[in-house]
Amino acid sequence: MHIDGNQLNSGVREADLCIIGAGAAGIAIALELRNSGLKIILLEAGGFEMYQQSQNLYFTQMEDSPKDCLGPEYGQMSRLRLFGGTTGHWGGWTRPLDPHDFYRRNWIPYSGWPIQQEDLVEAYRKASELVEVDAFDFEAENQGDVSKWVGKDLDVDFDGTPIIPRYFNISGTPTRFGKRYRGDIVGASDIELITSANMVQFECGPGFNNDAHHVQSVRIMNYNGQVSLIRAKKFVLACGAIENARLLLNSNDTVPMGLGNQNDLVGRFFMEHPHATLGFFVGTTTRQRLDPYLSPQPPYRGPNQSFRQPVLMTRSEFQARHQVGSFSCQIQGGDAPPEVADQPTIEDVLALCRKRREIEGEPDYLKLYMRSEMEPDPQNRVSLEPEKDQLGLQIAKLTVRFSERDLRNARISTEAVIRVLSALDMGRGQITLEGENIWPRDLFGGFHHMGTTRMADDPSQGVVDRHCKVHGVSNLYVAGSSVFPTAGCANPTLTILALAVRLSQHLKGQRS
Amino acid sequence: MNVRLSRRDVMIGLTAAIGGSFIEISLPILPAHTEEIGGYLARQLEDLPVHLGRLYLQSAGGGMGAQELTEKIQEALARVPPQPDLSKRVAAVIRSEYIDDQVVHLSGWIFSLTEARLCALKALAADTQT
């Protein structure tokens, strides 16, 4: 059933479960809990279509470095405030986090999940169904064997090198949850979807079982300023990493520091995936030998024509030896760079290559485009500005600084790709950083917001436990990438959905 | 050319290949096949980019001479299993240097140390001849 929140009068509605946020995670949980016997209210602050009044409420004050790398409009640009959420501009890239992404890595402070990849394998399969891409093949040898996917022998062998081939499953026509699942949600007899329902505050009472607090209701406001209450036995906050933190911090009527923030962790450890072109490669046989890496790989499967995009990643042993995080590199076509005095020329480089292998045809100019892990840092955070929005909520300030280790990871991992391709006689390459400690100009985030309500079994180390329940609050759960303790280098959508599926199973299990 | 090359052969051969009377090594008795090895190694240096060699020498502070370069190339060659075909041995050295991060950065470009040193030898030879 659908209710337009702008038509609501003040009053109280009741449910077994209230999900705040109808993006990928919120919709997935509602779908998973359909027909479970629970009465569900799903709240969406926007409508079925985008409208500016709603989107403006995503205004975020930016404080980032390198200067403006994410841009002053990042908070509004990078997310969509409507039914279906940010899946409305999702690029369709899916990949699970790798096993080592879940480990405690001594060289990365605050790393380590309380769950492992194996705990999510089945949920990842379900997640792939939800985004309508091929299920991921977890057998490492199949992931790495590009020859097998493309059905021909490739003259490339990465064994014994720091690099390993992997792939993303990409949806050719990414599933927009707002369109794809609207009928399922609205048509479900046990789900009440309320649009134009802006959450304003959690209202709490005393908690149970050692938990200090228990959420009794959530206060919502429509665009006419009308306030009403949703009472439920359990609540799931699923509004994305910036908004999850902002809403918890703004829920400070009964808990002055904000709900779940007894250890000053809510909003901290914000993470993105730095994306940038860090390398240039003059290939002599590259395009011929690396052809499958340069283009999407059919067969196209399923209704969304999903396909595989091979990438080169660093092995976990390399990451441990160099004390860096995860890294992936996509090889893309590029242009010949301008010649610069007192630098090696393209002809110099080609002369070297000719000594090792014959050049056939024109040289290939390639870009090495990287996506890498940003280390968790408590100083990167969502905090509240004194200024309030039209709902009376303090606006969010986002502080983002990539660390020296983040840059070192990007640099030495790109160098490793260049070294390996050179060792395989494919040409020679150049790191295109403008200085030792300067990111390239095209540095940007992937609109991947992670980490502001991180998962840890120890309440002093995280906001939610392994079941995504907020520490110290007996009936509040968080869904989405805000619970990621570390980011890996894979796009987060598949893991967001896998965690949502896992949380749904947990909630279902509690009921039974 | 399939010939087993000793360290001394390579040293002498490189010297001959670059017309290197400026390398101060003692050559009391030249092996009979010095000329053959020299010609072979000269072909290894043929077409190598002199410009790259000069840039490498500049990056090394300008004090590196032919003898030091030759010794370092020789040491690198000794680290890979002997092969009768020197070009395969050089290729194996270059491959292992890329994998093991034994590289030099020249304005961001990444080259194996041995290939940069071979270019530097070529540059020294070219500059001596001019």
Summarize the structure in words.
The complex is a heterodimer of chains A (512) and B (130). In chain A, 24% of the residues lie in helices and 25% in strands. Chain A is an alpha/beta fold. Chain A is built from 15 helices and 19 strands. In chain A, the strands form 3 sheets. In chain A, strands 1, 2, 3, 7, 8, 9, 10 and 19 form an 8-stranded mixed sheet that branches. In chain A, strands 5, 6, 11, 12, 13, 14, 15 and 18 form an 8-stranded antiparallel sheet that branches. Chain A is elongated, with a radius of gyration of 24 Å. The mean pLDDT of chain A is 91. Chain A has helices spanning 24-32, 52-55, 74-77, 121-131, 140-144, 146-150, 177-180, 182-187, 241-250, 286-289, 291-294, 316-322, 346-356, 404-423, 493-511, and strands at 2-4, 12-20, 40-43, 60-65, 93-94, 163-170, 191-195, 198-206, 213-221, 227-237, 275-283, 297-301, 306-314, 327-333, 364-372, 381-388, 394-401, 427-431, 476-478. Chain B is mainly α and 130 residues long. Chain B contains 6 helices and 2 strands, in the order αααααββα. A two-stranded antiparallel sheet of chain B has the order 1-2. Chain B is globular, with a radius of gyration of 14 Å. The termini of chain B are far apart. The chains are: A alpha/beta (512), B mainly alpha (130). Chains A and B meet through α13, α14 and β18 of A and α3, α5, β1 and β2 of B.
